[in-house]
Predict the structure.
Amino acid sequence: MSGTWIAVLVTAVCCYALKLAGLTVPPQWLAHPRAQRFATLVPVALLAALIAVQTVGRGESLAIDPARLAGLGAAAAALLLRAPFLVVILAAAGTAASLRALGVA
């Protein structure tokens, strides 16, 4: 068995253990307002960080890519117009792809 498969299996076991640990948390802890607020806000913060890294990151450095920034702008505009999620994704991808096809980026 290669080192890669050992890493995959160890990761799978750790993920299962983490999920099992979450199931053993007493319900009154989860009902606490701080826990509920944390559970509501953390996914938003993680998604924002992921978007920022994917938009202006290239490897271990920052890179200003006009197509990515325009795609992010199109997604933000679609969100402001309360478009469905799929439309937001298509607007961002379509804008970035169009700019790349035109040779802008």
Summary: The first helix runs from residue 3 to 23. Strands lie at 57-58, 61-62. The first strand starts at residue 57 and ends at 58.
